[in-house]
Design brief:
This protein has 794 residues and is of the alpha+beta class. It has 13 helices and 36 strands. It has a 17-stranded antiparallel sheet that branches. α1 runs antiparallel to α3.
Length: 794
């Protein structure tokens, strides 16, 4: 079509030149151009014409020059008519501009949005404001037809109507589309398969003949690209099972006469199965050969598998990359034996030159100091490029609580074959949260709360926390500061201070006044890439107070421990115990998660021991083990296991652990579906008193989230198990019978629940929603199916 258009344009130019030149000659012989004038322009600037015109002032014009000038002006595609005239010594260029496109409309399109159609037609020259060229319409119709064919609509009809506006020299184009029905795959026929049946092979195909989910998956819609992918999957299926000579002989795709059905026929030659007779390594062994041999997952005598050969080559390539050979090539080459029953495979190794890092650049950061990111790098400038070190560097930066995402890119340095630059593109996340409010409750009086968490204070990576809460039943002031790099080696230091004046440890507990002032110092020391040791000291100054309405358990502890004093106030007997304790903290942490928030692989183990040193007025210890681990499941789904066990006990003359050190269970942190804090022992007022043993486990199947919100939301199905037990000397009684009650640790007393949950990361913190179904509740258990909590995600 374009060649015919070019030939026609040339004939038209010659014809115009031969008719214009004699008319021009009638006005006189050849002449020298002293001036030029353009007539007929509307939108095009006069300078544009002079820029294209191959004539300048002072040139002598003849018939040949005139023909050339007309041909050039027509060749611009800007004009539908061109005429040259002489006015004395002035050359007059009379033109008629091609019309421009004033309006472009589409009707009937459903599968493709109008915006997408307009954007795609820009490339073929059809858009508002552009010069209209009628032959382009045919290209447009063919282009749109191809777009609909790719979507399986082979009965599509496209009509383009043009309405001219003579006065404005513009056109309005209306494209009318009749999409028709989508053609569906009616049959997929395989010919030549004998070892595997049709159903087994068709299960590897993305394309199907339709099922009850095809309306959603669209897998019964033919696509050339999808068919190519299916044929590759078919080849891989055979070659992974020993058929190294498998071949797709031919493929036929037929459309039914009504253009509504697609029939696909695939002819294959299975060949014969092979076994591996020998495995060899060849090439430059920059890594000891015995190390590389261990990375070959296929062994002599096993069935030939292309997938295993590819996997082995990737493992060897990665190992070479650890040593700086970032551009290494490993090619497995099979050689079929003469008897045609076995294959010898040779891995040819070309490590190339070792690559070194010239510069590391961080892009996309404005609120993070360069040092904060650079100290997380395990890949150093000036060192050789190691893919393992680079991958770990990316993971460490992603684990920073104020980083949402990070991507690495290796850029070769121009004019160098062994230098690269590394660019780390960092997307900053929320560094913290701030909230506060003032309220009033008839039960608690005036309520004041304010909290502040910032994990990247002033861009330094330091963590600052401050919390103020006041009400009738509690007054809390706390402050915490963490410097994760108090030394260049990564030693972290945390300083904390706080004051708590509470009368209820959990909601619904019996009133029991406890005032505690604390001051703590903790250090965290890295002993490996994933492991840290924790040690520190916390000073506690505590005053506990009970009255005649307090439960037996509270009054007993206050009377028997600490510096106790009994006195009367307005006819009420009060018992007060005041003591100081010095807690020594020891801990061990292993953390290999790929990110801190919304991780999907890795694990975290935490072991901690809080022990009061000799000389404390009250002596006790608290031991805790926590496990958080991720297991891949099917596709993007995975399991998250969050389990733990805690045990506390008194030491020396102390009869029991302090009431404020006891554990409480139920709710989002332990067993969802049960009211928070209400699992385990009850006091003589039938309110939660807590225990000295806590066991809990939460197993969640995490479901894939929509891509647009995947970084801020998570949905899951869960099964929880756990309870609170008491193994110390604290006495408990059945509230109905008054008989002694035993809360010793027993698997039969665990509570179970199942349900679904959602998490949403918002500027105010991490919102957690759950709906749980208790599976084995007992009489007296407090149930609460829907639960909601807000916690710091930082």
């Amino acid at each position: 079509m374009k060649q015919l258009l070019s030939i026609g344009m040339a004939i038209l130019c010659i014809a115009l030149a031969t008719t214009t030149a004699p008319a021009f000659a009638q006005q006189g012989d050849d002449f020298v151009v002293r001036d030029m004038r353009v007539e007929g322009l509307q939108r095009i600037a006069e300078g544009t014409v002079f820029n294209y015109l191959p004539v300048s002032l002072g040139d002598r014009l003849d018939a040949t020059r005139i023909a050339e000038a007309i041909r050039v002006l027509f060749g611009t595609g800007l004009f539908s008519d061109v005429e040259l005239r002489r006015d004395d010594d002035t050359l007059v260029i009379a033109v008629r501009e091609r019309p421009s496109i004033r309006r472009l409309t589409f009707t009937g399109n459903k599968d493709i949005k109008t915006e997408d159609l307009e954007e795609s037609l820009v490339g073929v020259g059809l858009t508002r404001g552009r010069t209209f060229d009628r032959p382009v319409l045919e290209d447009v119709k063919q282009f749109l037809t191809d777009q609909y064919y790719a979507r399986g609509k082979y009965s599509v009809k496209i009509e383009a109507n043009v309405r001219e506006n003579e006065a404005e020299n513009t056109v309005d184009i209306s494209v009318v589309i009749n999409e028709g029905e989508r053609a569906r795959i009616r049959q997929i026929t395989l010919i030549g398969n004998e070892v595997f049946d049709d159903d087994e092979l068709r299960s590897e195909f993305e394309l199907t003949t339709g099922n009850w989910l095809s309306w959603y998956r669209q897998d019964d819609r033919y696509s050339r690209e999808a068919l190519v992918g299916d044929l590759e999957a078919l080849q891989s299926y055979y070659m992974d099972r020993g058929y190294a000579n498998f071949e797709v002989v031919s493929t036929q795709v037929q459309i039914s006469p009504d253009r509504q059905g697609i029939y696909i026929t695939v002819n294959i030659d299975e060949g014969e199965p092979y076994r591996i007779s020998d495995i060899r390594l060849a090439g430059n062994m920059v890594v000891p050969e015995e190390q590389l041999n261990r990375l070959v997952v296929v062994k002599p005598g096993e069935t030939f598998s292309r997938r295993q050969l590819t996997q082995s080559a990737e493992l060897i390539t990665f190992r070479l990359g650890e040593e700086g050979f970032a551009f290494a090539r490993v090619d497995p080459v099979p050689e079929i034996s003469e008897d045609g029953q076995s294959v010898a495979v040779t891995f040819f190794i070309d490590p190339g030159k070792r690559a070194y890092v010239r510069r590391i650049h961080f892009a996309g950061t404005t609120g993070i100091n360069d040092e904060v990111l650079r100290r997380e790098m395990r890949q150093m400038e000036g060192g050789y490029l190691s893919n393992r070190a680079l991958e770990r560097s990316e993971q460490r930066i992603r684990r920073l609580p104020f980083v949402e995402e990070v991507k690495k890119e290796t850029l070769p340095v121009v004019d160098s074959d062994d230098l690269v630059d590394i660019e780390m593109s960092v997307k900053e996340g929320l560094p913290g949260s701030f909230g506060g409010g003032i309220g009033y409750s008839g039960l608690q009086g005036v309520l004041l709360n304010a909290n502040f968490v910032h994990t990247n204070f002033l861009g330094t990576g330091n963590r600052i926390e401050a919390d103020v809460n006041t009400g009738r039943f509690s007054t809390v002031y706390s402050f915490l500061h963490t410097d994760p790099y108090v030394t260049p080696d990564g030693v972290a230091r945390t300083v904390s201070a706080g004051y708590r004046d509470v009368t209820q440890f959990v909601s619904g507990a019996s009133e029991f006044s406890a005032k505690t002032a604390s001051l703590g110092l903790e250090y965290s020391y890295p002993i490996s890439e994933f492991t840290r040791l924790r040690f520190g000291m916390q000073l506690l100054d505590t005053k506990l107070l009970t009255n005649q309405f307090s439960p037996l358990q509270s009054s007993r502890w206050v009377l028997l421990n600490g510096d106790s004093e009994v006195f009367d106030v307005a006819g009420s007997t009060l018992v007060e115990s005041q003591f100081q304790s010095y807690e020594l903290l020891l801990g061990w942490v292993f953390d290999s998660r790929n990110r801190v928030l919304f991780a999907n692989r890795g694990a975290r183990h935490r072991v901690s021991l809080n022990y009061t040193v000799p000389g404390s007025d009250v002596e006790y210890y608290v031991a805790t083990y926590e496990l958080l681990r991720y297991f891949p499941f099917i596709g993007p789904t995975f399991f998250e296991l969050n389990a733990g066990i805690s045990y506390a006990d008194a030491v020396g003359d102390t009869t029991e652990i302090p009431p404020f050190k006891r554990f409480f269970g139920g709710g989002p942190g332990t067993v969802r579906g049960y009211r928070e804090g209400w699992l385990g022992p009850r006091d003589t007022n039938n309110n939660p008193y807590g225990g000295n043993v806590r066991a809990s486990s939460q197993l969640e199947l995490v479901l894939p989230s929509p891509e647009a919100v995947a970084s801020t939301t998570r949905f899951s199905l869960f099964v929880d198990a756990g309870n609170i037990f008491s193994s110390d000397t604290t006495p408990f009684f059945d509230p109905e019978t008054g008989e002694p009650e035993n809360f010793e640790l027993s698997a039969s007393d665990l509570r179970y629940s199942a349900g679904f949950s959602a998490q949403w990361l918002a500027p105010l913190g991490l919102f957690k929603f759950s709906y749980g179904f208790p599976l084995n509740s007992e009489p007296g258990d407090r149930l609460e199916r829907f639960q909601f909590s807000i916690g710091s995600a930082f």
